[in-house]
Design brief:
Strands 1-2 form a two-stranded antiparallel ribbon. The C terminus is likely disordered. It is built from two helices and two strands, in the order αββα. The protein is globular and about 40 Å long. The chain starts with 7 loop residues before the first helix and ends in a 16-residue tail after the last helix. With 104 residues, the protein is mostly helical. The longest helix is centred in the last third of the chain and has 16 residues.
Length: 104
């Protein structure tokens, strides 16, 4: 999936090869700053991979105008899906429960 901050297998891969890990989902009520990146393959918060529902962090794009920071993950997925349908005329299939099945 290539989401090392939120998938245990991708996290292990990133750690093994010293890749950056960027947190884009935080626990609800947690730090919304999204500053959980490190080139050492770990998070500054020490809480990655975070594989549960939460809120989107570090998730805005100035070029597209899409900003989902602070949104609950289910609502953020809906907004991104709507944007993809609008911009690309393409429906991205996903399942709201996918986050809960990522960590094993």
């Amino acid at each position: 999936m290539a989401v090392p901050g939120h998938d245990s297998r991708d996290f292990e891969f990133a750690q093994k090869f010293g890749l950056d890990i960027k947190q884009v989902v935080a626990p609800a009520g947690g730090d919304p700053s999204g500053n959980g990146t490190s080139s050492s393959g770990s998070s500054s918060s020490g809480e990655v991979p975070y594989c549960d529902e939460g809120v989107a962090v570090a998730s805005s794009s100035g070029s597209s105008g899409l900003d989902i920071n602070g949104m609950p993950t289910a609502a953020a997925k809906d907004k991104v899906g709507s944007r993809c349908r609008m911009v690309f005329d393409y429906d991205i299939p996903y399942h709201h429960g996918m986050m809960s099945s990522m960590c094993r």
